[in-house]
Amino acid sequence: MCGAIQRRRKRGTRERERESEAVASEYTARFESDKEIRLRSICISDGALATIIEFSSHSR
43 CB contacts (<8 Å, ≥6 apart)? Predict the structure, then answer.
């Protein structure tokens, strides 16, 4: 029983390590009006994917 618990713990540690390196890709689009859109795709767990969309504008 202890062995099963330890294996589970190790697996959990590996999953956490994967989550820390979760950012799969990042795209940045800049426009002439100094606006910027950034898309980040993040793999959460078990193949689930989240996309973060950030809008920003830089004033001159």
Answer: 18, 22, 24, 49
